[in-house]
């Protein structure tokens, strides 16, 4: 397994696993497209960087001290925003940015970010993905939904695990089905689940930091 060195010094330690996940799943994406990291050896054009060419995409970057852009394919971008002791996922599509999801616990935001990265990258039909299986299973039995603000945000629901006194955050009712399964898993359990059905050979690069 070849090593690829990533300089994680520009990222806070809390987001290192998200950054590593992007590189791992970007290899999967490239192999799905019949390519692999480093296949494109052309010179950069315009504002491109050599790393973008090597990976066939834009790697994660801290856009400011409190914001990680963890996915960007020029048409769709996701950001993890640290704000007021809460963790938001913002989404930009067609030049319009909106607040997508809120989590009260970082570990939930971390897992959901990796889930989003994998959704874009994974090969095969959607019907073969963990997300589709979760939608067929329905809401995880340990999770309950509520509508904290039905007047101003009628499509938004909060998620509570094991009848805890405090909910874990909010998202759209549609996203909450898969989200309920994401938040009850540990990071390692989620990682293993997301890799199901994908050849281990497609995760062939070992991401190391200096």
Report a brief summary of the structure.
This protein has 210 residues and is α+β, with helices and mostly antiparallel strands. The chain has one domain.
Provide a descriptive summary of the structure in words.
There is one protein chain. Helix 3 runs parallel beside helix 6. The chain is built from six helices and ten strands. The chain has one domain (3-209). A hairpin with a 7-residue loop joins strand 8 and strand 9. The mean pLDDT is 94. The strands form two sheets. It has an eight-stranded antiparallel sheet with strand order 2-3-4-5-6-9-8-7, covered by helices on one side. The protein has 210 residues and is an alpha+beta fold.
Span of the ends, CA to CA: 18 Å
> How are the strands ordered across the major sheet?
2-3-4-5-6-9-8-7
Tally the helices: 6
Low-confidence spans: pLDDT under 50, at least 5 residues? none
Integer average pLDDT: 94
Described by strand count, sense and barrel closure, the largest sheet is: 8 strands, antiparallel
Shape: globular
Provide the β-strand percentage band. Answer: 25-35%
Number of strands: 10
Radius of gyration computed on alpha carbons: 18 Å
**What count of domains describes the coordinates?**
1
What is the SS-derived class? alpha+beta
Estimate percent helicity. Answer: 25-40%
Give the SSE order as H and E letters. Answer: EHHEEEEEHHEEEHHE
């Amino acid at each position: 397994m070849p090593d690829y060195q990533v300089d994680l010094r520009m990222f806070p330690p809390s987001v290192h696993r998200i950054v590593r996940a992007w590189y791992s799943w970007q290899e999967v994406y490239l192999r799905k497209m019949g390519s692999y990291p480093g296949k494109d050896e052309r010179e950069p054009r315009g504002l491109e960087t050599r790393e973008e060419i090597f990976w066939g995409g834009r790697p994660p970057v801290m856009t400011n001290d409190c914001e990680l852009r963890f996915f960007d394919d020029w048409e769709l971008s996701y950001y993890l925003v640290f704000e007021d002791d809460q963790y938001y996922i913002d989404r930009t599509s067609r030049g319009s940015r909106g607040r997508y999801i809120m989590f009260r616990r970082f570990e939930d935001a971390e897992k959901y970010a990796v889930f989003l990265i994998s959704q874009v990258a994974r090969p095969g039909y959607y019907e073969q993905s963990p997300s589709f299986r979760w939608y067929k299973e329905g809401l995880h039995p340990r999770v309950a939904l509520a509508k904290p603000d039905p007047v101003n945000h009628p499509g938004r629901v909060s998620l509570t695990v094991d009848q805890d006194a405090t909910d874990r955050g909010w998202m759209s009712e549609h996203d909450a089905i898969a989200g309920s399964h994401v938040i009850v898993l540990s990071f390692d359990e989620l990682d293993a689940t997301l890799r199901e059905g994908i050849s281990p050979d497609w995760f062939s690069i070992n991401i190391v930091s200096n």
